[in-house]
Design a protein that fits this description.
The chain has 18 helices and 36 strands. With 705 residues, the protein is an alpha/beta fold. Strands 1, 2, 3, 4, 10 and 11 form a 6-stranded mixed beta sheet that branches. Strands 18-17-12-13-14-19 form a 6-stranded mixed beta sheet. Helix 2 packs across helix 3, helix 4 packs across helix 11 and helix 15 runs parallel beside helix 16. It starts with a strand and ends in a 5-residue tail after the last helix.
Amino acid sequence: MANAISVGIDLGTSTCEVAYWDSVARRIRNVSFGGEGGPIVPSAVWFDRERGRTVVGEQAYVMRVPKHREVVLNIKREMGRDYRFVLDGREYTPAEISGEILKYLKAEAERFTDGEVKQAVITVPAKFDTLAREHTEEAARIAGLETLMLLPEPVAALIGYESVAQDPEREYVAMVYDFGGGTFDCSVVHARGRQYRVLSKAGVHRLGGAQIDERIADQLIRPKVLHAGFDLASEEEWALKIRAKILEVAEAAKKSLSDESRRSVVAVLPHLVAPGRPPQTVRVEITQEDLQKTIADLLRVANEQMALALENAGISRAELDMVVLVGGSTRLPAIREAVRQFMGEKAFDGRDGGVRKVLADANPDLVVSRGAARVATSYDLRDERIELVDILLDTVYLRVPGSLTQFRPLFARGTEIEQAKRTLRLQWPRGDTVAVDLYEGEKDGAPGAKYVGTLKLGPASVPKGTPVELTIQYRTDRALPEVTARVRKTGTPIRATVEYEQHSVQASGSARLQVTPELDLVFCIDTTGSMVHGDHLEKLRHCCTRFVNALAESDLDLRLAAISFGDRAGGERETVYSFTPDPRLFITRVGSLNENDGGDERESALDALAVALRLPFREGDTRHHIVLVTDAPPHRPEKGSLEQLVSQLAAHNIRVDVVGPFCQEYDTVVAGTGGRLYNIDDELDQLFADLEESIGHASSGTEGA
């Protein structure tokens, strides 16, 4: 029988790595994939229609352009969300797709080690919520793996750093700066011996190397391809392949510029083909300065999260002993310069009395898996067990039975997980079951909380009014809490479970009410000059009417708002119609928007977005969406900067789509909020088609684009 081996798995957004303890060499080693391949494998899954097989890794990744409809990338972004990948009528959940990746990693580890892999420590972002962690555990079960622990990636990185691991008795406070493939995590950790205590967590769920690739593609390469005459707005196969090729070349350019000695790189898109024209090669020179300017606002967001992590931990920069850089993107000179500016000029050379030293590993892609492997190994060496003291990311609430709006805080955000244990007393109601909903949220009040599961007691033959004790306890190595229940007087146990019931909540007992998807949608409309005198405004009104009529069959809880704007410098102020659930009233309002004279000169579009930001958006799982329609570039905002505005929009989870001319300001807005830029002259219909598709997905329980 093969030897049983426990492994550490870095289940990353863009790549995965596996490490284990080599008992012969007596050191941590990384698994090499595909025979003589390297230790890093793409997190790509190809559902091969032609052969009816599922392919994972490098072979799937190389098919991302020719078979782009069959290849799934970055599935980690969707963990914890109600997302489905649909192919030929078959739906795949994030857990199922991640399960395929873990199956491959398990098989490759067994091939490489000639052992049997049954257990794993799997790393997750510090900002992963309960549902995302539960999806990760489900993926492991699909792959036939027992999850020893879900280890926060920043802690894994700290454990994995060789320079730190060589002195296991050292005491220090570290900030881990983890710029991954799709997420940015920043945690402050106090380490003492083999104990790692998380003091604070911060980060952004959708900020990572993938966003840098998209910036390079959209801001530096795409304009050159458009200038060459290619219509990238087309949905034909040739255009889709060009767009995928642009992203591929952007990623390659980023990797080349990770070498600090390279001042520039030429991105080449060879033999681009479109109907009715000969093949054409497009070349784009990208300098380090170009890249730094393109991602400057992303790095400012990361630095803001560093400051937040320090604030939440209650320590200053001077009190940090080290900053640990993790993730392949931290090789970029632009990122290291951003950290240098945050920490101070002496940070990278270890001066200033040895304080504030920045550690940059030669292989920042591998340290997370190596740290996970050290923890996995410690399970076999109990006297050397690594102890993790983690904290709750969000406040945990119980919803009061019989009410859909009253919540009771159970554990405060920042509570040490192992201390998150409470025993509640309740009177058994009529019937043989009890159901209580569990919520969590960052904010102090429950309105922004997210449903994560239902505590179910029974079925049990318990008389009405019998006192029952319910104990809820979180554990560091599991996503959902453990629950136990017993009759208080006799100690008789009652069956207790935690289950996630998609799209439902419990009003009381076993009664259920359907949860309707919610969307708050705001249209910010330029009503001046050529918008009025041309056909843009009239066409917009026609599209809005058609759009509202198309919603008749939707079960979406939709609220609509409208804001008209012009040029504040010319005395033209915004007209604001706040949210209404009445689509017909919204159409009436759009039809009566004030119209102003003027041309297609700069307008106060960014100020209109700032006004929209102050509207009473609903909290919780409501999707927030702003559509800005204009034929003119914007003025600078009257208050603050463009970057501050984009940061505020992103902080409120507001997506902004812009229908307008291509300009740097609008590109910054859509890139920073996850939106899209549509051409005002010919893509208005496409915007509404995308909105209808997104709403259709939301109503059917799948996530839109």
